[in-house]
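Q: Okay, next protein. This is Organic solvent tolerance-like N-terminal domain-containing protein from Brumimicrobium oceani. I've checked the sequence twice, so it should be correct. Can you predict the 3D structure?
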Amino acid sequence: MRTKFNIFKIALLIGSAIFLSVSTAHAQKYIELLEGSEEIQLDGTTGNYIVKGNVVFKKEETKLYCDSAYYNLVRNTVRAFGNIHLNKEDTLNMFCDSLFFDTKRDYAKLYGNVRIRDNEYKLTTDSIDYDLKNNVGVYKNKGVITSISSSDRLSSDIGYFYPDSKQFNFRKNVIYTSNDFTVESDTLEFNANSKKAFFYGPTYISNNEIRMYCEKGWYDLNNDEGVLENNAYIDREDLHISSDSLFYSAADSIYIAKKNVEIIDTTNKIGFQGDYAVNDDRKKFAFLTGHALAKRFGDQDTLYIHADTLYSFSDSAGKPQIMQAYSNVKLFRGDMQGLCDSLIYDKVKGEMNMYTEPTLWAQNAQLTSDTITIYETDDRIQKAFLRKNGLVATPVDSTNYFNQVAGTFMTAYFDSTQIRKVDIDGNAKTLYFLEDEEETDTVIVVNRQGMNRIFSSNISLRFVNGDIETATYRENPDGIVYPISDIDKKEERVEQFKWSVDKRPLSWQDMIYSDKEKSDIILLFNKIMAFI
């Protein structure tokens, strides 16, 4: 997951807005009119000097050039008009159509086609108010900051500048663009001291490869880390990540997602969801917990794996290799379900190992043993190896009997998820019920003839539609057929028999929610339906 959220260029752009700090309210209290004006008149009524032609004022290191001005010595105000150019130490230049400056109030306002620039950046807007006493500037009628040397550009309807605290706030229709990416937000705030940027309101960050969204977020340039919050997501062509909160640290190459986490990898046809996820790009490692669910998307069906905690390990290219699941592991696919205490899935080998009382259901058959290993090819189950105390059991319709195949080691072969063959090696046992079908004009009557019990060292069985079709017994088979009424209760079931269909997952939702959560969901659903 390589989605480095770097707004360093935004920070450079906003941080350079410090040039708006026009320090003209310090030692020198008066504005000086320099020699060289073409015409000066005194208006006795207003007390204004009307100055025209090559007008130049000076205050400290700042000079003001204009075509004409009203200069009032009593009020210490200047109203300047035409081709206004404000220059500070030859590094900061301001241009506008008209200007008002009050040194007593320490207040200035620039009107019309306002342009402010230093050696790196330029601000254009309709007008700017500047409170020199509190050192606060604001534009409220759209402004654009652009880089002179690059494509960086930031625009907003409103902009506030606090150079003393180095705080800069942009609001309404904030858009930042560069060659690398685009940011669209309702509010963007940046502090040049802490090097932190904050986003408020719907915010989109995008380029040709990625699109990110949040409704609240922040980024710390010093530590190169940040958070996207509230309906946050990251979209790439092959990857979707969403959660209530997404944290990223570039220094550690770590992502942390919290609440309603969903990850979809279309390239590798896998997905994850849960309450809490961590991804370490450097170690090629990730884990997921809290309603954790892994999904493997097939052409016709999806395999779901749930556990208290899921771990995923990738190769150097970021391609998933091994997944580990621990505690309360459950599997679900439309025609196959399972459970165990822990599971290791090696995607490269196509091998899934289920440990500690594993159980696998394939259609009407239940497979159990000390350990079950499932082998796949092209995401399709080829066989399952049952190691020690292996058992394949299927219920006999409308009875409390079960067909059973047991042995020390067993290999079950599948067509899709339907068992077609079982090889039993060591202490092989079969118990299956003989039946005869009698067809009438209206119904088919099944007659239970009895139970066939056979022991042998090795047995091979072939299945059709989940029932034993043929059996091959090797090395001294020992068999007996019991009439249905004379079945020996001691031989009715093998020693390792278990039947736990009540634990069989009914859906992927059934796997991840507790009984109380399912009850609450049903209660909420019923309340909603009552109002429809």
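A: Here is a summary of the prediction. The helical segments are 8-15, 508-512, 515-530. The radius of gyration is 39 Å.
Q: Noted. On to the next one.
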